[in-house]
């Protein structure tokens, strides 16, 4: 089992509300701005895409690479963060 970052643990610890996209694990300032430019300005909007892709890691990672120019680790960290959040709150 891989370890999670403090950012990941903080995100999963509470409801999403209107958290910015940069609160997601794996999403820093640069990726956050790229996502915002594509209309994914809040974490819940990225969650919506995650759910549309049926929580599928491969599809989500490919989407993150295509949409925000992320690398595999960044996209995987974001996927795991959203997956863990869903387990906790959905």
Automatic annotation (TrEMBL):
Keywords: Nucleus. One of its GO terms (cellular component) is condensed chromosome. This is Barrier-to-autointegration factor-like protein. GO terms for molecular function: DNA binding. One of its GO terms (biological process) is chromosome organization. It is found in: Nucleus. It comes from Hirondellea gigas. Its main location: nucleus. SMART domains: BAF. It holds the Pfam family SAM_BAF.
